[in-house]
Write a structure and sequence with these properties.
The protein folds into 2 domains: about 1-45, no CATH class; about 60-115. The protein is about 50% helix and about 0% strand. It has helices at about 1-15, 40-45, 60-80, 95-115. The protein is built from 4 helices and no strands. By secondary structure, the chain is mainly α. It is elongated.
């Protein structure tokens, strides 16, 4: 809570002092070689998203994304290698739930396989 109080005090001080953003070229030794905005406020909060050359966002329905996540997870679990598999997925898509569900299914299948191969005496 103290952070918010500090920010409120800072903002109040800035408003009362009639602070105006200053151009970087007035105080920054790198202003002539830097590709930032005209002042620190513009630099810290750009008006548009940064776009990478050749990058194109692909949007899918949530159901399709969840299905893809589960399929990638199954593929990683069933892989015949000892590699580390990195699965990138959207925030709040249910990664933890899917991991637990798939591992539960995998453990149950592994247990039944072992019991069939090595029955109790």
């Amino acid at each position: 809570m103290w952070k918010y109080n500090k920010w409120e005090k800072d903002i109040t001080h800035v408003k009362k002092s009639d602070y105006k953003p200053k151009s970087c070229k007035l105080f920054c030794p790198y202003a002539s070689s830097c590709s930032h905005g005209k002042n620190m406020l513009v630099t810290c909060k750009p008006k548009s998203h940064i776009k990478l050359d050749g990058y194109c966002e692909e949007f899918v329905f949530i159901e399709e994304a969840v299905q893809d996540l589960r399929q990638y997870l199954r593929t990683a679990i069933e892989a015949d290698d000892t590699s580390i598999h990195v699965i990138k997925a959207q925030t709040s898509i249910g990664k933890t739930y899917s991991y637990i569900k798939e591992m539960t299914n995998f453990t149950a299948a592994l247990s039944s396989c072992c019991l069939n191969k090595y029955p109790e005496k």
